[in-house]
Structures are given as C-alpha cells and as structure tokens.
Amino acid sequence: MSVDTQAQPTQPVKVKPGNIQLDQNGKLRHFLAIEGLPKTVLTQILDTAESFATPREHHGKKVDLLKGHTIANLFFEPSTRTRTTFELAAKRLSADVLNINISASSSSKGETLLDMLRNLEAMHIDMFVVRHGSSGAAHFIANNVPSHVSVLNAGDGSHEHPTQAMLDMFTIRQHKPDFPSLRVAIVGDLMHSRVARSQIHALNTLGVGELRVIAPQTLLPAGVEKLGVQVYQNLEAGIKDVDVIIMLRLQRERMHGAYIPSQGEYFRLYGMTEQRLKLAKPDVIVMHPGPINRGVEMDSAVADGPHSVILEQVSNGIAVRMAAMAMTMRNPDGSSAV
Amino acid sequence: MSVDTQAQPTQPVKVKPGNIQLDQNGKLRHFLAIEGLPKTVLTQILDTAESFATPREHHGKKVDLLKGHTIANLFFEPSTRTRTTFELAAKRLSADVLNINISASSSSKGETLLDMLRNLEAMHIDMFVVRHGSSGAAHFIANNVPSHVSVLNAGDGSHEHPTQAMLDMFTIRQHKPDFPSLRVAIVGDLMHSRVARSQIHALNTLGVGELRVIAPQTLLPAGVEKLGVQVYQNLEAGIKDVDVIIMLRLQRERMHGAYIPSQGEYFRLYGMTEQRLKLAKPDVIVMHPGPINRGVEMDSAVADGPHSVILEQVSNGIAVRMAAMAMTMRNPDGSSAV
Amino acid sequence: MSVDTQAQPTQPVKVKPGNIQLDQNGKLRHFLAIEGLPKTVLTQILDTAESFATPREHHGKKVDLLKGHTIANLFFEPSTRTRTTFELAAKRLSADVLNINISASSSSKGETLLDMLRNLEAMHIDMFVVRHGSSGAAHFIANNVPSHVSVLNAGDGSHEHPTQAMLDMFTIRQHKPDFPSLRVAIVGDLMHSRVARSQIHALNTLGVGELRVIAPQTLLPAGVEKLGVQVYQNLEAGIKDVDVIIMLRLQRERMHGAYIPSQGEYFRLYGMTEQRLKLAKPDVIVMHPGPINRGVEMDSAVADGPHSVILEQVSNGIAVRMAAMAMTMRNPDGSSAV
Lengths: 338, 338, 338
Hints:
Three copies of one chain form a homotrimer. Chain A is of the alpha/beta class. The first copy, chain A, has two domains: 17-160 and 317-328, 3-Layer(aba) Sandwich (Rossmann fold); 162-315, Aspartate/ornithine carbamoyltransferase (Rossmann fold, 3-Layer(aba) Sandwich). Helix content of chain A is 33%, strand content 13%. Chain A contains twelve helices and nine strands. In chain A, strand 1 (70-75), helix 3 and strand 2 (96-101) form a beta-alpha-beta unit. The radius of gyration of chain A is 20 Å and the shape is globular. The first copy, chain A, starts with 16 loop residues before the first helix and ends in a 10-residue tail after the last helix. Chains B and C meet through helix 3 and helix 12 of B and strand 2 and helix 4 of C.
C-alpha cells in the first residue's frame, strides 16, 4: 500500500513565515505561505503578475528578465500539471529550467536532502520550486539555503499552496476588484486542502468582506472557525448572495469510505448546478483549481458556463508564477535580481 | 496482455480532412493527413522544408521564427524517436517545447482529454504535436481547439503519419524531382501501416507515374487496389524497373503467428538484397522509415549500400517538421504566424 | 537479480586513446580518457575551465559559444546527478540539449547501437555525452562517428571518468597550484573506481610529487603499483603529511559481503575523522566525488569542515564540463568550432 502524503489531516503548521519570507527591506525573499505576509506584499504580487498577464495579442513575446538564471523543480510529489505551469513561467522569463526527479536521483543513492541541496546550490541553481507531501518541507529548505538562493512552495502536505491562492486572488480581482465589498464562499474538502488554507489567509489579508466555508462535518478541520470564516454545512444557505464561489477538488481517495457516503450523494448535497447558482449574486463567478471531477464537484453546465472563470485561473497561474519568480530571484550578493 | 493499439487493421477513417486542415485562404492550418490536401499545399511543404534543409555548413544556425511560441508534444503512445525529431525541429525554430507524458499526468487524475486540452490552451500552448494509438485522434483534437492553436499529427492508429510521408517525398524529390516519370514500389506490411497510407496519398497527389504495393496476402488491406495502386505479391516482379523502393517496417508483434510464418521466411520472400536490387533501375533509391530490422526487411548490404537514402530521410525529417510547424503556427488572432 | 555493470573488476582497458582523442593539430577532439593525453592538453582544459569558472558575481551571464549546436546525453546507466551537470554546462554555453533515455527508446525496438548513432547524427546532433556500464563504450562510439561529431565520456564501466578527474585537478590547482611539490593520497575502493583510474593518470601526467593509494587488500586492483603509486593498507600511515586527500565513494553493493566486513568496520579502519586529519599537512584539502556516505567514508565534521572542498568540486564540475564541450565541439567540416 502506498502512503498518501496528502491524505493525513494535519494540525496547522506552526511556522512563523513572516520573517523568513521577507528580506530586511520587506521585499519577498521566498514564497512559502500566504500566512504571515502583509497585504502590501500580496498586492505587489498581483500588480507584478498584471504586468506579465499581457493580452493574448502579445503572448508571443518572451521577456529576458531571468536570462542566465537557473530554476530547479524539486518535485517530491509528482504533479505534471503544476510542474508544467512553473516550467512555462520560468521559460517565459528566459530562465533555464531543470526538472529533478527526486526518487530517480538522490534518494536511490542514499544522499540526504541537505547534501542534495548543497550540491544543487554548488551548481549555481538560483531557485528551488518545491513540492512535497509533508507540511513545512519548503520552509525547511528555505531555512537551509544561502542568501542568494530562493524557494517557492508549490504545495506542501496539507499546509499551503500559495501560488495557487494568489492566482485565485488575481482572477477575483480581475472581475471584482473591491475585496471589502465581496462575499466569498469556499466549498468542499476544507479538511485536506492546502489550497483552501492559503485562500483563507489571502482573502482575509486582502480584507474580503465576508468569507464562508461550506462542507460536510467530516470534511471540516477542527477549529476552522478560528480562521475568520463563517461555517455552513448547507450549500444552498452558504452560497446565498455570494459574489465568488470557490469549489475545491475532491481527492479520489476521499470519494469512497469514511469522508463521504458516495460521489452521487456528495454531488446531491454539495455539487454545483445551474439551478443552485441562481441563489448567488447574478454576476457570481465560479472557480476551481482543477482538474475538475465533472458530476462530482459541479456539473458540466456550470464548469463550461458563463459564470465559470476556471480557464482564466489557469492562464493567470502562469502570470502569477512569473511574478513570484521575478520578485524572489536574488543576485549572488543576496540583493533582488529584478 | 497489453493492447497494441496499432495492431488492429482498421477501415479507412471516414474523415474529410480537406476543410479542417486549410484556412479560408487555402493555407495549411493543421497537418493531420495527406488525404484531402491539394498538390499545391504538398509542394509548398516541400519548398518550405527546402529552405530549412540547409547544407551542413550552416546547421549551426538557429532561426528565430517561432521564438516565444510554445509547442507541446502530446504523446499518448511512447515514441522517443519521433518525439525527438519534433523536439529538435521546434528548438531549431527557437520555440519552447513541452513534453507531456500523458499517462503520468492527467489520466491518473481522471481528467478528460478535452479538459486537458483546455488547460494547456489556457497556458498559451500554441501547437500540439499528437501521437495516439487511435485513428482519428489528431482530427478530434483539431476539431476542438480554438482558432489560434494548431495540431500536427505525429501518427494516429493505422490511419496516417503525414510528416513521415512528406519527408519521404522530400527525399525522393531531392534525387528524382519529376514525379510523373517515376515508378515507385512500397514493400511490406501495408495492412497496419499508417506510413504507407500517407505515402500512397502523397505519391498519388504529386502525380507519381506508377505506384505498386508488394506484400503477402495477409499483409494487404482489403480494397487496397481502390487507392490507385497496382498490387504484387511477388517481390521480384514488383520491383522490376522501379525508380524508388520504400520498405515498410515489420512490427515485432507481426513477426510471429498469423501474419507471416517466420522472420526467416519473410526475408526469403520479401527481404531486400543486393541481388534483388539489380532488378530495379540502376539508380534506384531504397527507403525505410526506421528503425530497420536488419535481416528481416533488408540485409545490411542494402541498408548501408549506395542505393540507400535512409539516413537522408532522417535528416530531412527535421526540415519537413520545421516546415509543418512554421506553416501551421498561428497568431493569437488566428492568422498565420510566419 | 539485476546486473551491476560497474561491479566487475576489469583489467585495464587496452585502448590507445592518444590518437583518437586528438586531431592532427594535437587539439582535443574527443574526451574519453585521461590516459594518453599529454600534459599540455590537460593544462589547456584547466585553463579553459578557468575562463568559465567566473566568480559568483557573474554567474548570471550565459555565453553564446555553442548556440545552434545540439548535445545529446546518451545515458545507458542512469545518473541524474552527472547528467544534470552536463546538461547545465551545455545550457550555459547556449547549446540545445537532448536527454535520450536509452532503455525507453531504441533498445525496445531492437535497434542496434550503431543504427541509433547514425540516426542521431543524421538529426545533426553535434556531440554525444556517453555514460555506459561497459569499459570502452565511449571509445567504441568515438570510433564510429563522423569527423564533425564529438564524444565525451561521462563514465564507462570501471575504466575512466575523465571530466570528474579534471574537476578534481582544477580544484587542487585552485588551492595548491604547484603539482610537483604535492603529496596526494587516494583512499578507498580503488578496485572498482573509474574515477580513481582517471585521477591517477591525471596526477601523474601533471607531475604530482608523490601519489599514494590507501585501501584494504580486497579493494586494491592487481598490479596497481605499476600505475606509479605507493600502496598503503594503513590509513594513518598513508595520510601522513599529505597535501591532498581524495576519498572515493564506497558503492552500496560493496558495503556488505566479500569486499569489506561491514560499514562500521570500514569506517573504523578507513573513515576520515577530524582526529586522523591532523596527521596530514595543516592545510590539507579533503575531496570526495559525491554523494557522500556520511559515517562510512568520512564523518560529517570532516565533510562539512574547513578542510573540505567537496562543494567546490561540484561547482568546478560545471566549468570543466563547459571547457570539455567548448574544446571538442566541431564544425561540420571537422574543424574546431570555438
């Protein structure tokens, strides 16, 4: 039996990311978690991404910002989809990209993680994009790199997935720029979702008007209400008059067994339909981090319908990751490279 | 037992590729099949490839034609060899290349093919190079992309493999430019060969003088004579006085069992030898799509002999794929990018 | 049981590399082995690498030296670590890089090695970086490529690993430039080490003052004393007053069974400790090709201590591989490309 490193509900990780993520000038140094970052930095990420999210007419242009810099994707958990977006972001900034297959390389020779990092740094890798099944892994790595190397968290356990949250914020801002006036609902497996955790921190930091989470009891983490959200177990009540609905992905391994009775039952109670969507604001937008389980989290009429901004999220993901890379890249003396 | 998706003899696919492959100005928009393309377009592909098939003295030069464009190799069937030629062609045009391992990515998460395409398009992938075990797969994808995305067929089931056929035409034209005066023989497993199907359409469209196919009854598709070819079951008779001999690859899974009695018997009846080559024109050229099964389809004296143009085919494959990429690449508004 | 191609102690390979490695002007043409290369060429490699080993302040600069050239990594033995260093070196020279997964490609289709090489050459691959479990493989390939294609040996069986040896020479020269005045000790599994074989040839060619090898009898190749070294079985005696200590990696498969009684016993007799290091010169440097087995070949206090230059070796590996690539790359007419 293989271990599902994302499946364990974990306590909120006790990291104080504020210090390590910012340099002495308050600029983004690593991007590990939304928690602990001030609103000014989140807004700066969105503004920088804006400059990369050029209209499609210009997408043939590459920028040379990170030419000569090398970015390594360290994926301890496989994820072609997420890796691809980071790879594309790096290439569009003209950086060199190295995909390191962890299981195939060091671990088979019994090398420690720290020795592997030291070696990659010695090869003048400038940035690590880290995905790992354990909460806190990216922080651990960031705590162990020299001042000219940056770390981006591409998802760590059930802790955070900060670039995903920021591409969601970017997408919301494109449609509804005034966060304080917004009512937002996050629907689904809050318990195991690093995406949701990052989204909640981001929305609160950006001053969202009202934040609701909607899930069956079995998929709600203990103490979720302390995160500044209103908890609903009933979908219809929860999405009433909201401006934004964020659907979470239901992991396949949660579709059977203890968490929900069945996919059909889940859809009956929590699946988004056109009918239900009428309960929200008329101009509500519907989001999903992908890939969608059609007929489980939502039906296709919603996924492909006029309220869906799911594919915009994907496009914005490239721009936001370009922004995170450009902002955190360091010169050899530790100063900001861009 | 694993399923061999190429092994099923299929009926000719009922696609009308003419429309979808050309834009309203009659320019190549996708490159999915030879069938349905007019002679002018095939000639334009050859002429464009000519401009990329620079003499070796210049091969150190890259062209910047597709700089800033992104091409994704979507290989649902693994083929390092074919993928490599497309990857090299893209890099020599300065495009960014993304190799998507299909089994490793979406399918494991249960994503539908269309959702995967939508996501890749949202990441501003401009072109898909598709290889798939099912006939018609590239057409299906081309029918489902927006106007700024192009599709190249790198082999679909037993249907077509158009870039392979065009590199063969390119190689023939380099040696013997007057197609109407040529007598060409295609030898081997016609039944399962997408390459042969594309070659037959290309040779007929380019107005070849006489086209023969040579194979045992078990490896001849039903109704092959309707494709405008003369059928021979005897190799010696078939290659008499021909200008060009195209040997097909005998797939390993056909070497035993129902299709041929044995490799040795196949070679005895259909293997190309120096002796037999004397029956053809004195300046006959011998072609093979590779990789060769030496001692099965031909002996080494032929493969490495003065009549063989097999390695020229490989070189020309890069130029022809560069041509197909440059001609089909679109701007965001759907107009031709080059 | 899988075959360990590196595990067989082999006789010194009977290749005369001098001729094939140099062109008629005495310039480096392939880089296959240290044995047979004159001191002038080794020094030229070190000097060229020096020009690429710019201080970290400049590492953001790429050089365009090999732009438009294509380098293929042919790794018949998997080694992410070594492949990565060659890939980075190639990218920093602006070459295009192709990673060919050997088992996944040709061999599954029964293609011969020579046919695969011919095909890659026809695709205008300019250089092969070859790693192979059999001694002499890189020589075999170099003997079978045309005059415009170069071959770099990235490790062949238990024969040689010349770029590793040259990065070691580079590192020694940075710290202690006068080879004739140096006393160097190589410690560990001499029997199976292609690295050690290359190091011994390099140190002797560069005129090292005194060269010692230290290993238990079971890990000493027969006739090692003919290579111009002094043999010690006692570590303390062997490292007395040396300037440089090169620790070899103990392969996992030798840690149990016939070669050494146990890891603990090996460390007790041959492991490097701070205490033992005091027997050497006060400014001794300690080297290791990585990855280190901490607590087997050396303890962490040595690996991370002030005498260790292990991470410098890694950095220098990029510069030395850039030098080997730039020096051997050929124009289509066979002349030196750089």
